Amino acid sequence: MSYQISDSDKELWTLIQNQIKERVTPQQYTTWFSGLNLAKLDANDIYISAPNSFCKEWIENNYMDTITPSLEEASISNRKIKFIVENASSSEPEPSVQNSYSSPNTDSPAYINKNYNFNNFLVGPCNRLAHAAALAVSEYPGTAYNPLFIHGSVGLGKTHLLHAILLRLQEKGNKALYLPCESFVNHYISTIKTGDWDNFRNKYRQIDVLLIDDVHFLANSQSTREEFFHTFNTLYTRQKQIILSSDCQPEEIPTIEERLISRFRWGLITRVDPPGFETSVAIIQKKTALLKMDISYDAACYLADNVVSSIREIEGTLANIHKHATMNEGKVDLSLVKQIIRGFSKQKQNIGIEKILNTVTKHYGVQLSQLHSKRRLKSITLPRQIAMHLARKFTNLSLGEIGGYMGGRDHTTVMHADDKIKKLKSHDRNVSYSLRKLEDALTKKNEY
Ligand code: ADP
Ligand code: MG
Fold it and tell me: How many angstroms separate the CA atoms of 286 and 292, rounded?
């Protein structure tokens, strides 16, 4: 595409790139985003060029949730994102990674956060089992539970637990290797290019413990799953410990084969849940103490009640409060917390829940009473979950309040629904299409 990019578009693109950088790790940025370029920007669309089709697909499947808000920050969220592949006309072979894709630093060790240790991990009913299992495999690798599979939605401590296990094992002198699944995929891809399979296999097979974070990334590459399967078998038969994390249960990983699911089921599968009220309060108190803030009990309770979707969100809010608290000698009281939370909520467009319910019922042709009911037919559960997701996105209502409007459901149901739809959005075309239509209708681009 030969198109002249104006200076102001270039500036906009730099802004978008910076926004993306804030949302991903440096390694993810170098691997997936540094090769992207702005190809064209017009009134309706933004065209982004990717170095090859593998990179394009990977981003479309995994990073739309990162790119979309970055466009919002650059105030161009009304444009549709279109990816094009550079030199696509030169009939790329499949997979395209063989010629043009280079994945940097596949051999450099993953970043390990020393603060993600067992001491700093707060245990509550939401993560007690996962924590106990993590301690057990650190103590008896290869014999306690093999593999250990920890799943749960984002920001609930899976990476923290994996790092804690790694740190404990390293203290004891075990040969343990931790890596995000994406690095495994990258390494596999670069090995296709170099052909150095001995190096690849030695790296993953001559160790005592292998920890792979976010294995749901395996969904996108059949050949990498094949290789992972062999790695798994080799380690398992040698009684080496395997520890995996994922944002969903094994069988919910899209496109995954039965034989891998059954391998994952050989050991222990355990879930981390969103923290309940008491655990949230305890986490808030612990983290504020670490930040040398003095938070009143009612302020901690108010926060726990209003920021419950994940521990990462709690930390984000606390970091924000910290900025304000320094002006107040580190003291955090209820009025300060309310002020800050209200500031957040203003950013939402605040569309009424009634409008959301009306729009969703019309779109799917279901009755409000069906949404309220306990029926679990897919034709009803999907609109119900979509309504909850939209309420989270567009209203200031708390999870409990949304549950109230949805026929008296509790806050964890609303959270799970919200999470589920966010996930479906990235790989289910019907869902993403419906969401787009509904959101357009809600924000009045299109009246129903
Ligand atoms: P995940 O990998 O599940 O997305 P992380 O492990 O990255 O989540 O956790 C997000 C943040 O929340 C991290 O900063 C982590 O230290 C913190 N966190 C998660 N669970 C706990 C816990 N139980 N106690 C203390 N901090 C936690
Ligand atoms: Mg993680």
Answer: 10
